[in-house]
Amino acid sequence: xxxxFHDMIEQTMEVFxxxxxxxxxxxxxxxxxxxxMLKRCEDTKLALNWEKGHFMVKEGIVLGHKISKKxxxxxxxxxxxxxxxxxxxxxxxxxxxxxxxxxYRRFIKDFPKISRSMIHLLEKNSPFIFLNDCIQAFRTLKxxxxxAPILIAPNWDQPFELMCDARNYVVGAVLWHRVEKxxxxxxxxxxxxxxxxxxxTTTKKKC
Length: 207
Description:
The protein is of the alpha+beta class. It has helices at about 25-45, 75-85, 90-100, 110-120, 130-145, 200-205, and strands spanning about 15, 20, 60, 65-70, 70-75, 160-165, 170-180, 180-190. Among the domains are: about 15-55, no CATH class; about 75-145, no CATH class. The longest helix is centred in the N-terminal third of the chain and has 18 residues, at about 25-45.
């Protein structure tokens, strides 16, 4: 797929494994790009599944995210399913929930910090006791998902601002644009540090 559309990628289309999206700012230009893409498919005998295609839309679901002119949002139907889940009663249940919630971690500030008590239950030889801190973490993650912000696409003509934070066991960052004294978030990032990394100085952790 990448080889087939190598000269169009990032210019008029984006490819994601066996899915792709053709885009442009205006209807007429998007139609031209679409025609060019279809001609390439015809020339290379690439078959498309028309039942899975959506044409000339202003918004749509791409890789589990809603994409529109407003930015990137979580897929509401998926979040609704997650929000109705009861708290896990097994290690497998925790792993499944964290997998679903983690898919949208770019929308959640301090994801590792919030989920730490649940992640601890996945450690080898750790007794499975779903205490109040785990219940609170579970509820907080669901609340953050249902109230997830809209993330904007980066504007390469505007300056970027990056805020970093470091705790004893986790580091986090927020990338945004400042527009008229308002912060417009582009991405949340965070990770749990290894045992060796926890010994770093605060300055080194942030770097």
